[in-house]
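Exercise 7. Given the components listed, write out the predicted structure of the assembled complex. Treat all entries as one system.
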Amino acid sequence: MEGDEYVSTTIEPPMKEPSIKVETHRAPMPPKERLETIFHVENLDCIYGSKAAVKGVDMEIYKNLVTAIIGPSGCGKSTYLRCFNRMNDLIPSFRQTGTIQYHGTDISGSNIDPVAVRRNIGMVFQRPNPFPKSIYDNVAWGCRVLGMKDGMDERVERALTQAALWDEVKDRLKASGLSLSGGQQQRLCIARAIAVEPDVVLMDEPASALDPIATQAIEQLMHGLKSQYTFIIVTHNMQQAARVADMTAFFSISHGAEGQRWGELIEYDGTEKIFTAPSDKRTEDYVTGRFG
Amino acid sequence: MSAADVTATPTRRPFTGRRVRFGDAALQLVAGGAALGATVLVGLIIWKVIDGSRPSISKYGLGFVTRVAWNPVVGHELYGAGSFIFGTLITSFFALLIATPLALGVALFLTELAPRWIQAPVTALVETLAAVPSVVIGLWGILVLGPALRTNIESWLHSAFGWIPLFGPPSAAGASIFTAIVVLSIMILPIVSSISRELFLGVPPELKEGALALGTTRWEMIRGVVFPYARGGIAAALILGLGRAMGEAIAVTQVIGGGVFIHWSLFSGGDTLGSKIAASYQGASTDLQSASLIYLGLILLVLSLIANIAAQGIVRQVAKKHGVTRGGHA
Amino acid sequence: MSAQQLTGGPDFRTNHLVRRKRVNMGMEALAWLAAAIAIAILGIVVWSVARKGWSELNLDLITKNPIPFSLTNAPQGLSNAFAGTLVIVGLATLMALPVGILIAVYLNEFAPPSIRTGIGLILDILAGVPAIVIGIFVFVLLVSGSGQSAVKGAFSLAILMLPFVARTTIEVLALVPNSLREASLGLGIPAWRTTLSIVLPRAIGGIVTGTVLAVARVAGETAPLLFTSSLVGTQTSWNPSHALQTVPVAIFELSESPDPKDHARAWAAGFILLVFILFASLSARWLATRHARKIAGR
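Answer.
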């Protein structure tokens, strides 16, 4: 169930009528030999207090791809995502076992400085959270603080352009970031995240608070930026995963003998396969809408 | 925070054409009368204080404000507020200067740095100090702090840096402007700290997360997100603290040592507007002296009102700013 | 672990990170230091007062009168001050409470928004007047020419209490759900009756809390009483038309005396005052949570 297998871009004979039409403009994935592993997750558990939220995840995430994490609510997708940039450290009762190797280094260890990790692995949150600063400063602040002080105007323009926001705000860079609409604010947050030149961008349900047009803008953004960044996106919207993701990981809730619940990785494969010919029945049930 | 911010929609408007009951009208009249009374009271306070100081105002005019003198000897009477205004401003500003970093440090500590189990006892400690009446702080100041400061700090500073005019000969028993400054900073520390703490707690967590997710350190996040967000409120808190320090008369008069003239040395005695008034409570010898004391009170009232209104203005501005709704235009 | 190892990126990232982390540690250390200093100071004050006060505590304080200008070792106390404080604070509460509640009722139930902000402003201004100026005011208004009395002292304390009581009552009244008022009005009960019999009783917990807190605050006030009730006798009196001694004023006078025995009594009285204030504040807090729980549970 790891994404080790070569994934073809042709649609195999489906087991039944697929209910998710995989309509996408994305380019086919490169062949396996050219896929570079950026994250290697091994036996990861996420534990709050004494209760496990996520158990036993093994997966490889590949560079310059969009990887989607889907699953029913409560299966620990966001928790899992936040492991990648050590944001769970902010929660006092959180513990993690297992390893996440980033370019070969285990970033989950206590000897690793989360500040350094977050420098390279950025995050966009579910609800847009721009700073109460001007649009320009929203993008520039992070760069300044992180020591990238030269050519700030160009940096800001580049980030806003990549986030598909430049044209709309170029005349009012001094306006407050809070004066933008929801969709624009989220794109501002994306611009802010990519302005500091991260390696990976994590997105936690980035479009769930947005209308369809804003959602579409963000999805197209991801297409365009894939060549420069690696995206991991959590989404509860299957169609969205089908549209943007190259690889898809399906998480679901498992139950224990004494009634405990935890999230587990069920299946992880190329998006086409997950949605048209999943190997696991639980995956099939979810993507065909039989539950979840 | 203030009374004006709390609103509730009344379920009916008075006298809107319904048949008016006597009871309703009576209650509204009485209650409205109380509200009117409060308004009248404020006006009355201002008027009566002006009225009581009239003999002194008519004799000295505005020159009173700058003159450094206080001579109650009959036949040579001369009064002026100069040294007391100076005393008030010096003690209050220095107290604020000392208290602010400490108060902000405590507030930051409690909201960002302290482990869970420390928060409750420290908060309780700060609130306990806020509950200590000023006369008791003054008592502690006279009997404990003053002598301790004199022995340990004033003499050392004088012997080491006596050439700086600020550090003159140590006070006789610890009663000095310096002691008053320390006492005032202790008194305003809880207020500034509590308000700052509330402000820091009010910073939306998603803003802080957004900053940390960029790879900033905790301090950078505090400086870039928490402080700017809380900036207005902290300014208001500081002005509130300043107003409190300026208005404090009892503890100051207990420890400040008394004195009419302006000295360079922090260790000499002096008086503030409030402390001079309090020191003279047993009665003035002449009507002119009475009126001049009340004139001091008038100046103090004006200063306090300015600080109060400034603080309120800032609070209203901040409330407006943070009320900016998202999604202004498409 | 360096950033360079994580990205293989250019060196400047690493250098900056090290420096930034050092700045971060420095600032955190400063915050810890400031907190430590502040906590130490606060702790010293509270501990000092508690220790000295406790050691000087004795029953004579409450039962015996002071003996002025005494060089004797005869037992003396401050019973006149405790009696006077009870009388004056009690009277002040009686004066401030009804007026404060009425103001709150007016603001909440009758006033149009503009008046609401206006009166709110008035209350905030009133709250910002220093206690000593209030003392001067009452002196000019009532005392000058006609002498001091406990009632006049109570009046000055009532002015201090008023904005506090009004503000907390406003907040509590605003919490009473409108549906309650509407239900009552819908039954045909007139508005004034609704307010007095339905709304106010619902808010009574918060009003009591606010009053207790106001009492706690004002019990330790010295400045206004200096001008209204400080020329006092040494006998314990409960007569409000005389100037009565109060605990804060007594502490004030004793603190200026050179006699260490006077200091001892001042510490003890201060200790009792502080304990009372803390007890009142804590009870008010406890009452508030209990009341809130009752409302929620209903």
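Discussion: The CA atoms of residues 220 and 273 of chain C lie 7 Å apart. Chain C has two domains: 3-55, 62-297.
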